[in-house]
UniProtKB/TrEMBL annotation:
Origin: domain of life: Bacteria
UniProt xrefs under InterPro entries: Csp_YhjQ, YHJQ-like
UniProt-listed PANTHER family: CYTOPLASMIC PROTEIN, CYTOPLASMIC PROTEIN-RELATED
Protein name, per record: Ferredoxin
Amino acid sequence: MAHHTSRHGMDDQMADAIAVVNECHDTCLTTISYCLEHGGEHAKAEHIRLMLDCVDICRTAAAFMLRDSALEGRVCAVCAEVCDACAADCERFTGDERMQACAEVCRRCAESCRQMAASAA
């Protein structure tokens, strides 16, 4: 990754946040395939839609941070909200390690995005 200097002077924090949202994007995207293959509750439309929302907002948040957008804080706040919702939905699949791992990544992403939103305010 290229060196990124933000207007906030948070090179490491920004790079870490981008890495976390990219990890969340990738994890949710691959978990969607798992859910569709698993079927049943895993493949219900509401669950898949929420996971797709998480995939898309993570991609968007990374792009806003990479280009140092003036709106990155607002996008990161929305990303945190969506990731929290996705984590809660994945956590309901108790006993499913793959879903619990996805929830954990979403929680980390939500926390990172909350920190970015707070520092951009």
